[in-house]
Design a protein that fits this description.
By secondary structure, this protein is of the alpha+beta class. The protein contains seven helices and eleven strands.
């Protein structure tokens, strides 16, 4: 069965949305951290982590903020980034909030994103305009976004972004994790095609499927689907992988290779498995055992 369904994202917002002053939030802060900060995973580049900074915003935003009435959005943003380099700062803004925020500093990106999301989630449509005020007050949406540095060394920064959202009236919310790898030499985002030779997809698919079978201790893809509900037959490389010291970690979010109830599926692939399909000069070659 093919469960691949596009994950609806709230990160795309029309540029014509009306901006308004941010209401006071229950918690708004910005602080710097050292390498012991919980926003950092594995690291061999701790000297760079002195510049780790974060912006935290938490609050409830109403259609009528003065009266605190109408449809509302509870938003929690924990935005961690490396400060002190404007190019990297804006790249972190793009990763966290979307391409339309790529030109903004971290603080400006957070403020604009909150304004945009507040407008999108609390605006009334034709259906809600027919509702009573009491019912409108019950239209409560929820948005939680956080970023952290999963791994960092002299070559790469791997950023992990978690997004969970619930739109008032929906049957259930949705959530997902995105992995983004930054080439520290060029200060650009890396893609799968930067790592592997041309026409790599078929071979990489087999590697991922084999690692799934090993991880779940089953012998066939059919057995995997029967026991775990994972439709690995439909699996394809999704470019959602995190660079680590010993391998790539792929993540498949709800609906990608299974039903919502399955949750997220992670697949760890050692670099040795990937060696046959690595592009000459691939940044991943630096992590192969010698």
């Amino acid at each position: 069965m093919n469960y691949r369904i596009a994950l609806v994202s709230t990160l795309f917002v029309l540029a014509s949305l009306t901006f308004f002053a941010l209401p006071s939030c229950s918690s708004c802060s910005s602080h710097s951290s050292d390498s012991t900060d919980s926003g950092v995973g594995d690291s061999t580049g701790t000297a760079t982590l002195a510049s780790l900074d974060s912006i935290v915003v938490e609050g409830t935003y109403y259609e009528d903020q003065n009266k605190k009435s109408g449809p509302s959005l509870y938003a929690s943003i924990v935005f961690r980034y490396l400060a002190g380099d404007s190019t990297l700062e804006r790249l972190f803004s793009r990763i966290a909030f979307g391409d339309q925020y790529a030109s903004l500093s971290p603080r400006a990106a957070v403020d604009t994103y909150i304004r945009d999301m507040s407008s999108e989630y609390t605006i009334q449509d034709q259906y809600s305009q027919e509702m009573s005020q009491e019912d409108l007050n019950e239209l409560k949406s929820d948005l939680r976004l956080s970023t952290k540095i999963g791994y960092i060394d002299s070559l790469v920064i791997s950023v992990h972004k978690d997004l969970a959202e619930y739109y008032a009236g929906a049957v259930h919310g949705n959530y997902g994790t995105g992995f983004y790898n930054i080439d520290r030499r060029t200060k650009t985002l890396l893609r799968e095609s930067d790592y592997f030779v041309e026409d790599y997809a078929a071979q990489l698919t087999k590697i991922l499927q084999r690692r799934l079978l090993i991880g779940y201790k089953v012998k066939t893809l059919e057995e995997l689907e029967e026991k775990e509900g994972i439709s690995a037959v439909d699996l394809t490389p999704n470019d959602n992988c995190s660079i680590g010291p010993k391998g790539l970690t792929y993540i498949y979010n709800p609906y990608e290779i299974g039903p919502y109830a399955l949750g997220q599926v992670t697949i760890f692939v050692p670099y040795e498995d990937l060696q046959p399909i690595l592009r000459p000069g691939s940044i991943l070659s630096h992590y192969l055992p010698h």
